[in-house]
Amino acid sequence: MNFKLAITLISLVTASESILSSNPTSQKVGTSLKRTFLTRDIKTPDPIPEEGQKAALEVMSTGRLYRYNVKDAESSMVSQCEKEVAAYTGHKYCVALNSCGSALMLMLKCTGLEHGGEVLSNAFTFGAVPSAIEHAGGKAVYVESNYDHVMDINDLEMKLVAYPNCKHVMVSHMRGKLADMDAVADACKRHGAVLVEDCAHSLGVRWQGTHSGHKGIASAVSSQSYKMLNSGEGGFLLTDDDEIAAKAAVYAGAYEKLSNKHMTVPGEEVFANLPVEIPNYSLRMSALAAAVIKPQVATLDERIEKYNARYHKVCQMLEERVGHLMTIPSLTPGVTKMVHDSLQFNLDKSITEEQVEAFIKDCGKHGLPVELFGSKSNARNFVNWGFAPAEDPLPLTAEMLSRAADVRMPLMWADEDFETMVDVICESLESVLE
């Protein structure tokens, strides 16, 4: 080989390497493809605003963590927090609790669930929902969920006929997704069932312009760390019903005349003899939790806007690159505002179970934990609820869960992190299908 030819070849190789290195997420090394890796923590929660940090320190400096260790309702941090939450959702009454699970349980207790009473609920939800039904002394009966991840209205109708003694329906808005709430409410009314709503994931979501949780007689929202409000653990029972609000406050721990230290419950005359007629389960929220929650309410809409903008961008990128291999659940007509703080997609039916499993593993190997709702270890898979097993076949839900994937979208990530997320998803999917 002459000297000039050798120099020319070296220059061409160097230029090729320079071109490849300019794309760090997709570099060819020999005949292989250099893969994208995500290094951010998928479970990064929303931080506590500085105002909440200061309020928590102030509460701790006084030592008055117990909600009733105050001179009056206006001085109570918990009562102030309840007032903010009720104002945001548009409910008349609000009772702050130690968890959303407690709120779910109390909704059933306060609306007359009898021991052993049947409660219809989504077959696709978190295990806390059937747990709350069991906690309240009820028996869970499951309604199919469809590929949009919401309660199937046709199956709800059939189950209400098949279970004529069922007097409660607890609809769960998993990942903030609402079923046709007009149809759900109508079915409950025609069959004489009390409707209550699990809004743990739907704080900020609106149905026909009204905040979620108003089609049922009561609803529950969460302040667990992975929700839109973050106090580690916590929840709120919301209602416009006088009796439910009074009972919830007493069950939670408003003994004697302590209801006077609430701002979002009915008057003392509604409580009457309730403090001696029903038990005190000591489910109160502490002033410390309320202190960190209260300032977060004012930031909800701003954070929702940011979540939604990122979500729509991620969906657009996925649809452009792998839209033929997945579907993204559609919103039910009637949802006028959504909160997209996480991403769900259904892998195409042409993808085998083995390939689905390989995809989940490959994403994890490249730094992106993607959960399969139908995993044998996932607490959102009804087959894992041994304490409240399904007695009826649920083929639609089982099929959907077997290819329904779930990915968190942490607020604190940078915009480019979501581009990396999309790269990992697409590369992993293409890799297992080669």
Give descriptors for this structure:
434 residues, single chain, 15 helices, alpha/beta
Order of adjacent strands in the largest pleated sheet:
3-11-10-7-6-4-5
Question: What is the helix tally?
Answer: 15
**CA-to-CA gap between the ends?**
39 Å
Taking all Cα atoms into account, the compactness measure Rg is 25 Å
Average of the residue pLDDT scores: 93
By DSSP, the count of extended strands is: 16
Share of residues in strands: 5-15%
Uncertain runs are 1-31
- What is the helical fraction, as a range of percent? 40-55%
Q: Helix/strand-derived class? A: alpha/beta
Largest sheet: 7 strands, mixed
Description:
With 434 residues, this protein is an alpha/beta fold. The chain is 41% helix and 15% strand. It has helices spanning 3-21, 50-62, 77-89, 100-110, 128-135, 153-162, 181-191, 242-252, 268-271, 274-277, 287-297, 300-322, 353-365, 395-401, 415-432; strands at residues 27-29, 32-34, 93-97, 118-122, 139-143, 168-172, 194-198, 206-207, 210-211, 218-222, 235-239, 326-327, 335-337, 342-347, 371-372, 404-408. The strands form four sheets. A seven-stranded mixed sheet has the order 3-11-10-7-6-4-5, sandwiched between helices. A hairpin with a 2-residue loop joins strand 1 (27-29) and strand 2. Helix 4 (100-110) packs across helix 8 (242-252), helix 12 runs parallel beside helix 15 (415-432) and helix 13 (353-365) crosses helix 15. The two termini are 39 Å apart. Mean pLDDT is 93; it is low at 1-31.
